[in-house]
Amino acid sequence: MHKTPLLDQLESGPYPSFVKDLKRLAAKKPQVNDLLGQLERSYKEKITHWKHGGIVGVLGYGSGIIGRYSDLPDEFPGLEHFHTMRINHPSGWFYTTQAIREVCDIWDQYGSGILNMHGATGDLVLLGTTTDNLEPCFQALAHKGWDIGGSGSAMRSPSCCVGPARCEWAMFDTLEACYECTQHFQFDLHRPSFPYKYKLKFSGCPNDCVAAVARADQSHIGVWRDDIKIDQSAVKAYDGGELKPRGGATPYAKLDVKADVVDLCPTGCMSWDGKTLKIDNKNCNHCMHCINMMPQALKPGSERGVTILMGSHAPILEGAQMSWVIVPFMEVEPPFDNIKELTERIIEWWAENGKNRERVGELILRLGMRTFLEAVGLPPVPQSVIRPRANPFFYWKQEDFDAEAAGKKYYTTK
Amino acid sequence: MALAKAELVEYLYKMVEAAQGKKQLKAMDLQKAVLKEHPDQDKNMIKMAIKELIDSGRCVYTYFGGSFIEIPHVEGAAKH
Lengths: 414, 80
Fold this sequence. Notes:
The structure holds 2 protein chains of 2 kinds.
Chain A: H1 5-8, H2 18-26, H3 30-45, E1 50-52, E2 65-66, E3 68-70, E4 83-87, H4 97-110, E5 111-117, E6 124-129, H5 131-143, E7 159-160, H6 174-184, H7 186-190, E8 200-203, H8 212-215, E9 218-224, E10 229-230, H9 232-239, H10 257-261, E11 270-272, E12 277-279, H11 289-293, E13 298-299, E14 304-310, E15 324-330, H12 337-353, H13 360-367, H14 369-376, H15 398-405
Parallel strand pairs in A: 7-8, 8-9
Antiparallel strand pairs in A: 1-3, 2-4, 4-6, 5-6, 9-14, 10-13, 11-12, 14-15
Helix pairs in contact in A: 2-3, 4-5
Chain B: H1 5-19, H2 27-37, H3 43-55, E1 60-63, E2 67-70
């Protein structure tokens, strides 16, 4: 075993340690011992010893395998090849124990045994195998019904929250939407043909449990467009302490409806006089705070669909960007053809205009939201305005003058 | 005039071969180059022609800070 005095310190805290897990695995997998040794050396020298990328893959696919090599193969021979495999997860990450056992058995046979559940995109991440083992491992996984996920300049494995399977707030069937889009974009998931990565995420409600708004190039967030349903007697029960806030998931026994709900409403659209709760629904921005605090008193409306947002990404080296609303409300139902068609139009525009390694959100910033909306055939909407205009100049197009002459307030694509 | 499938496959292969070692081409670079010479070429047919090149093993996908299509070659990173 390699000596790892720096890594050993990570075992001393009160929390579970990956070092402890790796040491246990190293007893039967020599490459994991080398992994600990190389990591110790990196900690000491403050430099990585990994080489990344290259040519490795499985036949026919350009995604899902990430080449990793050690730059110290003589010292750590187990890491000469240490490739990563991404395996497409099921919608909502629902597994049977049998399915997980099968994956683990296959990975014990062909890889290092190190499994990360899950990567940032949502895939199961199998860490550490050799080039020779990639194809047989892929075949073994495929025979058990698994497929490789996305990587590189491709559609990444779409992901979603648990949705209607376990959550009362799901405004649409996130699981089915995720599955439908995964199947529809199979070609683009396995064969990189985009300027860079493209992530689809589906959250059932504005609580956004998959953090789509911060991480997905194209986010679909469940929303309602009519009024929040209020049970006034239940609001009084919360105010009187008969009902616990947040369904009991809080240390606080009693809710102060004014201080904890009304005064924290981000748009100030609520009022409470001690007897009646009023909501100015036109000014509600669907943040879900009030509903989360009083789930037995407030419920989302009945007209349900999705808000579609574009452009978020969280690069390590440059600044992160949050999503931008492009469709405030879209009715959706299986097989989600309207989402698929819009996604195809967006991807076509991005693939045509994007530079190498330029995410769609960066392209929208570079060419402008107006150009984007016109190209994909979406009307401009007030919800797309993220900040007041700072540039006093505006380039009028002939279509704008034509629209004005025809008595319209502004040019739209529809 | 649009190329037939077999001609298109060869056209793409020659493009990748000519660029090997000089410029890394993405799938979209290939598509744009084909459409410049043959504007009436069906985009889906170009995608399928690239797929055929990959499935046959004549070309491979590589990743070097982005995904490219290249002629199979000895893996540089795997060398000591």
